[in-house]
Give the backbone structure.
Amino acid sequence: MDTREQHPASPPAVTPWAARWTLAQPWVSLLARLGLAGVLGFAAYSKRIPELSVQSVEAYQLFSPGVAEFIGYTLPLFEFALALLLVVGLATRYVGAVAGLLMIVFIAGIVSAWTRGLAIDCGCFGTGGEVGAEETRYGLDIARDVGFLALAGIVMVWPRSPFALDRLFGLYR
């Protein structure tokens, strides 16, 4: 029989970086949440003229006219709904995941247009459509959307943030 005293394991030492992150994380998440909401809200607002939004989707030449029209009409509403949910902080983790998937779809669409040699404006923030070959900015558009994907990742992985309705429902305290 072992006569040594049994002591409960002591908690691991908290590093200074971990302590700082614990304090900063909610505020980083708040900034990411509101930044992503701003991007999605502005994108929705810039597509408020349905015919121009449909034109932007049609420029990618990926969908039949009926599907392109449906996407052109509903995408701004979807972006606005995501932005609103992010602003109020409701279902934050899930909205971050959906926004991240949306950014991946946007990146894939831009890569598709680029590899097929289309000369279009992405239509991400306003009117899109055909442009001169020298006017395309595919690399910058992809880099920008990767940045937005990073914001969505922050919101998804660390959803806890101040001023969120999630806290009222006991989520992400």
